[in-house]
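Researcher: Quick test of sequence recovery. Tokens follow.
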């Protein structure tokens, strides 16, 4: 059997661990041959491929990013995109395609399976942890760890200068990174896209924090929005300026940005990504196309890709209220 592999969407720590596990088990236990497609869906679209064998994946477990490259290419937006993909899969005599990606990448895979019979198996990757069919996605734990370390470091400079420090983290549609890193880092305010915030209340929490002789840390997801207003581009910078204007306290903003995606994966992400890879190649062996591997409790299960991408997993209001005792 010959199997293709691609990584699509935003990069994140753990992608190489998945590739390694797929190839190691596929070659050693099943005698399969592997082809890696470069730069996400652009690879099978343009026929840009490279052989994958055990020497090619040796030593990549702790490396961030992806040895195959990634992109946000949408094959359905390309002229004759589906035809070109099918022709290139046939050219390489592939019996299956393992698609490692987030919601957009996997939605493409689901459509190719359901509408055109392309034999795809999915692996969930996103630092946002927003795929509803799995308890965790790899990349998330590393991103939270990076954000938490940044918040820890910012506490000391905030207190030294008696400033408000606003930390903007990734999370355009969901606030999982903000919630987890904010709680772990001892933030005084955590703002997420799922809950529109009251700017007056945020300023009241900031003022309250100064009364206790400590300087406040405000963690805000990039997609968080004020209650009375539209989405703000660069919400962290905007929020810092508004807090300074309304409270009279000096404020500074740190935008973590793509640093959250980079670097070596955490031990948990290496473990989870490896297990996902091992189970993904089993799904290909079983001909269980149209499925995505997912973590449920401590078990790896298979779920329909279409189910996994039907809706985003968002922060529950009850969970957000649970941590509100630390605000202010």
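Model:
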């Amino acid at each position: 059997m010959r199997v293709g592999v691609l990584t699509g969407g935003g990069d994140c720590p753990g992608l190489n661990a998945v590739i390694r596990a797929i190839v190691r088990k596929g070659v050693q236990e099943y005698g399969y041959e592997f082809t890696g497609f470069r730069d996400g869906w652009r690879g099978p679209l343009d026929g840009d491929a490279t052989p994958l064998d055990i020497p090619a994946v040796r030593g990549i477990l702790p490396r961030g990013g992806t040895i195959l490259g990634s992109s946000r290419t949408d094959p359905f937006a390309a002229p004759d995109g589906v035809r070109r993909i099918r022709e290139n899969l046939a050219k390489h005599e592939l019996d299956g395609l393992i698609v490692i990606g987030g919601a957009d990448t996997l939605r493409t895979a689901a459509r190719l399976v359901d509408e055109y019979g392309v034999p795809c198996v999915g692996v969930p990757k996103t630092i946002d942890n927003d795929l509803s069919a799995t308890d965790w996605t790899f990349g998330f734990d590393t991103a939270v760890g990076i954000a938490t370390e940044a918040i820890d470091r910012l506490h000391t400079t905030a207190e030294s200068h008696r400033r408000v420090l606003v930390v903007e983290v990734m999370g355009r549609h969901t606030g999982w990174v903000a919630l987890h890193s904010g709680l772990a880092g001892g933030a005084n305010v955590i703002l997420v896209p799922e809950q529109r915030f009251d700017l007056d209340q945020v300023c009241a929490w900031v003022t309250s924090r100064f009364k206790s002789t400590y300087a406040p840390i405000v963690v805000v997801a990039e997609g968080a929005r004020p209650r009375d207003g539209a989405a703000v581009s660069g919400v962290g910078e905007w929020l810092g300026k508004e807090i300074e204007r309304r409270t009279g306290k000096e404020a500074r903003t740190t935008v973590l940005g793509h640093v959250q995606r980079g670097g070596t994966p955490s031990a948990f992400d290496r473990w989870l990504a490896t297990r996902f890879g091992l189970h993904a190649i089993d799904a290909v062996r079983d001909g269980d196309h149209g499925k995505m591997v997912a973590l449920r409790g401590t078990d790896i299960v298979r779920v329909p890709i279409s189910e996994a991408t039907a809706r985003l997993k968002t922060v529950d209001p009850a969970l957000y209220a649970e941590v509100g005792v630390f605000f202010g």
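The CA atoms of residues 167 and 219 lie 5 Å apart.
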